[in-house]
Amino acid sequence: MTSPTTPPDDAPQVLLFTDGACKGNPGVGGWAYILRHVATGQEREDSGGLAVTTNNQMELQAVIEGLQALSRPVAVEVITDSQYVAKGCTEWMIGWKRNGWKRKVKGQLKPVKNEEQWKALDALLNTHRVKLTWVRGHTGHPENERCDELAVAAAEALR
Q: Any idea which residues carry the catalytic annotation?
């Protein structure tokens, strides 16, 4: 038996490729994603940006936007070149949540940076069955390169 937010076993497999870009850090930034339904090959691209942001915020926003674009709970593989996003989701978030969205810095608890985005991402991760895959950026990965192009263009459009 599955809960209302758990995708059924026969949920479609979706690939979500993401990237963020920032000119200056902080500076003008862009995010982008490609969603691909594995069985049909159907794709959707989207991008956007902010006039004042950071690279990490844009990396997070790309994943948030991509997961929000899904019309129902699915099994999704998120492919990102951001170790911040990948490690945050797979390693750090459980401790942050346990500590009231705080992280340990030199033995003291400090607020998690980008807390609102992490909370939004956490809710989305709990809606879908998510696998995270990290890829090295700028190494010729076709979808990662395309997302980079889209994110940079979105940032440039705000200049």
A: 19-20, 59, 81, 138, 148
